[in-house]
Sequence to fold (192 residues):
Amino acid sequence: EAENGKKCLDQFYWLASEYRSAASCLNLHQRFSQSFWQAAKALTSTDMCNSLKFRHLKEFSKSALLVKRSLIHGRGLFTLVDLAQGQMLIEYAGEIIRNELCDRREKYYEARSIGCYMFRIDEHEVIDATRRGNQARFINHSCEPNCHSRVLLVQGVKHIVIFAQRFIHRGEELTYDYKFPKEDTKIQCLCK
Fold:
């Protein structure tokens, strides 16, 4: 429930099932196809530029990352494989909207107790992943993160991509610093 007593609309309640995450990890060999291994090899290559690596990102993240319950907050994104430092992990995908629309949507989601997943690209554009996003929206905040985000320009389009900040062990939750702004109403940090 929300603080105001309203029921929260949790469109992702099924992701929290403990049976789902256990079943998803049972047979890793079936989960990882030949194209996954090719994508993983490309993403760790030092010879390839980021725009070429970006082509392999979707295939890799679809198989190597899993949403499940988090000790930090609600749900989190976890890795099923070891990740190298500097490796490209996932794009923060969603609908690209203008800043003005972002403010209106935040109020709309808040009024209806809908969880809001937004990521600022620059001073003019924001990615709204609330309804059209991918699993990157479940990456939680940490003051000591194992990932960082960067804006990449691929074929003239800006993309937010999450990279491993250090070596990340299989089973570890992915986190990055949300860089919360200084506000009158402080957003609570739950990373402990």
About this structure: The helical segments are 18-25, 28-31, 34-44, 50-64, 99-111. Confidence is low (pLDDT under 50) at residues 21-29. The chain has five helices and ten strands. Residues 50-64 form the longest helix (15 residues).
